[in-house]
Amino acid sequence: MSGILRSGQVAAAAGVHVQTLRYYERRGLLPAPARSNGGHRLYGEDTVTALRVIKAAQRLGFTPAEVADLLAAGRHRHGRPVAGPGDRTAAKLAEVEAKIADLTTIRTTLTAAVEAGCDDLATCASHPHCPLPFAALDVAGDR
After folding, report:
1. Dihedral of CA 79/84/89/90: which sign?
2. Angstrom distance (rounded) from CA 74 to CA 29
3. d(CA 41, CA 84)
4. How many domains does the chain have?
5. Fewer CB within 10 A of the end CB, N or C, for the chain?
6. Closest CA to 24 of 44, 53, 60
7. Which residue range is the domain that position 68 belongs to?
8. Domain for residue 131, yes or no?
């Protein structure tokens, strides 16, 4: 790469569509690019790296707003990074761990329901040994 890239070149190098590049610009994940005399968007090679970071963060479960926060926190001010990326990553890890725990409970319950032969939810719900959490539901809380 030569240092100054057009939209198609950046998109191809980062493995995204040009529309994705523009979407990230609108969302503030990428700064507005410089323009050529003909109006073409011009990017530095660092945009390819930023796109790869954005895509990796999204694959790790960060929302676009969270990615924007991570990018802002990682930018340097007065020669020093802004504090926060580690805290944000730790918070995301805690969120993922909680989801894993919830999904593990769901898997265990569904496995028990399959093994118990719960084919009819109405019949299963009235059976005292039904593994599904019908009894745990707070019907009074639905008022």
Report:
1. positive
2. 12
3. 31
4. 1
5. C
6. 53
7. 4-83
8. no
